[in-house]
Specification:
It is built from eight helices and eleven strands. The termini are far apart. 34% of the residues lie in helices and 23% in strands. The protein is of the alpha/beta class.
Length: 269
């Protein structure tokens, strides 16, 4: 296993973006990786695109689901087949900067941590930069994540020699399964260390699950009450902070990262 990275990517009707995601992995300065793409019954050309690229690069493997089960089941299927020490997540419509893996592994070894997240920027559907950046805090624990919902899947990396692999198994829910997974890791006592360098690109698309504001809000509330079983008052407190941060992320008003643990989003002037 040594220092190999397993990149986990769920895909579903991702023909517009999947090649860009794959190329961003191939362009990494760190080359000891495998990319496991679990296709969730796409009915477009997604699988054909993956298979064509994988002919050039044996590190890229496609696993085809027989029943559409959602992102959690797809990621868990990849986790079952992972052979790397480090687990990194890249959705089919997102991208990484070329030094993402190299710098994050160096950071985690230096900090001796098992769970980390890099800062990231937002791009539009066409892949063009919006010059909007979300900066990570130095550390986030369980309560910190509930009240400062900054962690984004595109920046996450986990060392399974430190964090038990079983804690990475995502709950079978359609929304917020990634956030629920980070919370179950944090509940074990691990902290998520923030690498405050923009090394990933999160694509904001109109048809993404998170783009439906009402459904996204319901998913967050369900996460607090049904998955985490938070009290009603604390759920309200966390939800208000989530809503404020969601608005902040949309309008990107503000400046630099805050050492106080509050909103840390910036926009190029």
């Amino acid at each position: 296993m040594q220092d190999k990275v397993t990149v986990i990517t769920p895909s579903w009707n991702s023909e517009k973006y999947i090649a860009s995601a794959i190329r961003s992995v191939q362009a990494q300065t760190y080359q000891d990786w495998e990319m496991l793409i679990v296709d969730d019954c796409s009915d477009d050309h997604t699988v054909n695109i993956i298979e064509e690229i994988s002919k050039e690069d044996s590190r890229i493997k496609v696993i085809r689901q027989t029943i559409n089960g959602g992102a959690a089941k797809a990621r868990n299927r990849a986790l079952e087949n992972a052979s790397g020490r480090f687990i990194a997540y890249l959705d089919a419509d997102d991208r990484w900067k070329p030094e993402k893996l190299e710098k994050q592994i160096q950071f985690m070894k230096r900090q001796r941590c098992g769970f980390s997240c890099t800062s990231y920027e937002v791009i539009n559907q066409a892949g063009q930069p919006l010059y909007k950046y979300i900066h990570m805090l130095p550390k986030v624990d369980y309560i910190g994540f509930l009240t400062n919902n900054l962690l984004q899947t595109v920046g996450i990396m986990i060392d399974i020699t430190i964090v038990q692999k079983e804690h990475l198994i995502m709950p079978d829910i359609r929304r917020r399964q990634d956030a629920a997974t980070w919370l179950q890791i944090l509940k074990t006592g691990h902290e998520c260390y923030g690498l405050d360098e923009v090394l990933a690109e999160y694509r904001r698309t109109t048809n993404s699950l998170s783009s439906n504001k009402l459904k996204a809000a319901r998913g967050v509330w369900s996460l607090y009450r049904d998955i985490e079983h938070l009290s009603f008052p604390f759920s309200c407190h966390c939800f208000i902070r989530y809503a404020l941060l969601a608005i902040w992320k949309r309008i990107y008003v503000g400046g630099k990262r805050s050492e106080s643990g509050n909103f840390v989003i910036s926009q190029k002037s």
